[in-house]
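Exam review. A common question shows you a sequence with its structure tokens and asks you to describe the fold in words. Practice with the pair below. Do the first one on your own.
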Amino acid sequence: MAMESSLVATAKKKGTSQGKQKIPIKKIEDRALRRVVLNKLRKDFFSMAAKLCTTTGARIDIIVFSPSGRLFTFGGPSVAAALRAFLLDSLRRPTEPEEVLRRVGAKEALQRRLEKLRTLAIARAHELARAREEAEAASKTTDVDPVTATPDDIPARD
């Protein structure tokens, strides 16, 4: 126990080792240091992604753009194949809940409009049938030919 505490005390006194330190989450102003940190964290990030893929069978694709515009990718079988699959899938079905609701709302509105048009078409068909019946009844009661008659030939209704 005494030996353990003396080792801890010695390690605390030395303080010369930089070792693995926690990096504060804020923008690094020095461009050169920023480049170094990006490369180190990128390698660690890609390494962790590879471990996650191996252990769980998950498919991970990562795209990183550096501040200087360089592109770094991680993925399998290729990032291009993953992007193509993602874009095709997103075209097939909406991913945003608002988009789903908008499409459902539009479909319901179209269904309501279709039902109104059907009702109007049925009503119009009934009106035409009644008008045809009236015309046939009127032609039977008069001696006027419905094909060749002019408005003056048709007797007025009471």
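Now try the second one, then compare your answer with the model answer below.
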Amino acid sequence: MRIACSSTPEGNVYRFYRTDLDVTAALKPIVPFLLASQVDVIVGREADDPELLMRVGPIQGSDEETLLSVMGRFVTPCPSAAAA
């Protein structure tokens, strides 16, 4: 799995992409977090991004720290909103 990060003024947005067949095992650790958090989660592709599996965010603070502690190994570096 690959997770791309983009920065917005409201917080970072994480886009999840399937890169192997075992994406279910990779996502399983964050399911309880996603169910308990107040973060926007959109599952499925978007018209401009047909490879997209799931989008999470905008997210910041302790919710983002929790997400990164579990999924950080899959995340590409996130540019800052000021640079955009």
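Model answer, second protein: The mean pLDDT is 85. The longest strand covers residues 52-59. Full marks require stating both points clearly.
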